[in-house]
Amino acid sequence: PQELTTVRVQDPRVQNEGSWNSYVDYKIFLHTNSKAFTAKTSCVRRRYREFVWLRRQLQRNAGLVPVPELPGKSTFFVGSTDEFIEKRRQGLQQFLEKVVQNVVLLSDSRLHLFLQSQLSVPDIEACVQGQGTQTVTEAILHYAMSNCGWVQEEEGRP
């Protein structure tokens, strides 16, 4: 059977609304039958700056392979915030769709931890460098087994 990977960026939520350190995070839902992925379904939340970090890492490790662009970080945005958030959501989804179609990028374990664990960026780095408490596979399986992605959905995020 053909390998299929569906990745969706959904459900943008403003965190710390009304404060100076508010930000938007997005739900990333992944469903696949690809052998490249440890877990066949996962659901995590990530914010824009984590995508920026991921793109930088992929770029660093991909050599000459071009890494897709992220939607811009617009400071002069005309229109409503909702419109901006929706445009960004679409851009992030297109970014991930292109990334998961690229064999070279798919071999980067940072990408897998980004998509299939709720580890923070420093924890992803530690894990990839073998300084974490778990291997990359263990971290992904631990998250998959704990079913956090689905539990968070039911309870609303803390």
Report on the architecture of this protein.
It is a single chain. The chain is α+β, with helices and mostly antiparallel strands and 158 residues long. The protein has one domain: PX Domain (2-Layer Sandwich), CATH 3.30.1520. The chain contains seven helices and three strands, in the order E-E-E-H-H-H-H-H-H-H. A three-stranded antiparallel sheet has the order 1-2-3. The longest helix is centred in the middle third of the chain and has 20 residues. It is globular, with a radius of gyration of 16 Å. The C terminus is likely disordered.
What is this structure, in a nutshell?
One of its GO terms (biological process) is intracellular protein transport. It is a peripheral membrane protein. This protein is of the alpha+beta class and 158 residues long.
